[in-house]
Structures are given as structure tokens and as C-alpha cells.
Amino acid sequence: MTSIAAVLAVAVAAAPPTIGFDEFAGVNENGAVYRLSLPYLNPDHVPLAPDEFFHVVGRDDLAQQYVSRQHTRAALVIGGVVSILAGSLGGAFAAAHEDAAGSVTYTVGGTTLGIGLILGGALMNADVVDAQAMHAMANAYNARFTSVAR
Q1: What are phi and psi of 101, to 5 degrees?
Q2: Which residues of 35-68 are buried (b: 16+ CB within 10 A; e: fewer)?
Q3: What is the pLDDT of residues 9-50, one digit of tens each?
Q4: pTM of the prediction?
Q5: Domain map of the chain by residue range?
Q6: Is the peptide bond before 39 cis (omega within 30 degrees of 0)?
Q7: What is the Cα Rg of the chain in Å?
Q8: CA gap 149, 85 in Å, rounded
């Protein structure tokens, strides 16, 4: 996989690298219209992950925030799975010791907590800025780069 730094080094030697966006629109299963705006680095149309985009435009703070949110989302989902497993095991252990009330409490409690954590992680928005702000950052970056090349 090509690193962004390598692409930038080659691009600077050949032509000023600019950032563009692939734009997609669609309708989800609920009928809501959504828009995706995916950044890429020219001239080779190299796709940029959000954290790479923020590094390229010089916003390392936003890259760090994005990565931190991704880690939080993953931790919530993993914690949810662990909670469901722990509740199930606790319920099975209680059932093996003929504690029906404990079995239900562990199983229902662990499952409820786990589902809540999984949903929290799945529904958490990892975006630190909206598409409009990303476009503005890209435009500022492109203007800065093209004015140096002139």
C-alpha cells in the first residue's frame, strides 16, 4: 500500500498535489437521502481515509480526534460483546447451581447492557467535522498549494 507521504513526495516533484472529492448520493431503506463525500489526493486519485485527509491539510488535532472516536466506537462494541458473553456465562453458572432468579438476572442484565453498548458504538458518529468543513479545508489547502506553484 502506498503511503500518503510517498504520494505527496512524488506529486510535489511532478505537479502540485490537490485534494478532490468523489461525491455519491443515495436513499437508505427508510427513504432518507444521504450524501457521501470521499476525499482523494490528485494527481493519482489516491483515496484518503478521514485521518489521512486531516494530516494532509495540516489538521493533526482533528486526525487525532477522529482516531480517538474510532477507538471509542470499537471499545463500546467489544465491551458489549464481552458483557453479553459474561451475562450468559453468569446465567449458566447460576442455573447450574439451581439459582433460577440469579440465572435470569445475569442473562438479562448482561444482554441488556451488551446490546446498549453495541448500539452506542454502532450509532456513535466518528466524524469530527461535516462534509462542508472538509471541502473548505481542502479548498484552502489547494489554494495554498497552487499559489506556491505559480
Answers
A1: -65, -40
A2: eeebbebeeeebebebbbbbbbbebeebbebbbe
A3: 555 555 668 999 998 888 878 888 877 889 999 888 899 999
A4: 0.74
A5: 4-149
A6: no
A7: 23
A8: 58
